């Protein structure tokens, strides 16, 4: 069975991004292994540490390597991805030549409490994933806007149409990922 890593760009408790991720995961095949990777506690990437990486870097890199495919859900911070998400991408792509993300299929979703839906963060993340050699599902595009109206206080998506759409995207992603996973 495919192992899906889920990376939520928001480190906030009860984040809407996590709610979107859960709604996507609901569409994965029954019995799928799903692992939410914690990015909140990673120290900032520093190339000086490549020769003697902190244990938390090594553990995160191993967690990335253990997954077959990735679901990324990001909010938009100042028209880009959050620093914690960019840091996680950097940590697991280094040291140079040891990219743990390479070849793993990815799904990208963005969300925002505004109508802009995190579109700029979405495309910034896609650009980074291209460089990291991650084949990324192109359709459907997952720009989720006005999330405050679609979710409860815990960040869970409650709007039935949105839940159905996101679960459908999860199903589509499982079919896409199967093309790349042994």
TrEMBL record:
Listed InterPro entries: Flavoprotein-like_sf, FMN_Rdtase-like_dom, NAD(P)H-dep_reductase
Coiled coil feature spans: none
Record-annotated NADPH-dependent FMN reductase-like domain positions: 3-147
Domain of life of the native organism: Bacteria
Signal peptide residues on this chain, from the entry's feature table: none
Example GO molecular function: oxidoreductase activity
One GO cellular component, as annotated: cytosol
Protein name (database record): NADPH-dependent FMN reductase
Taxonomic source organism: Ligilactobacillus salitolerans
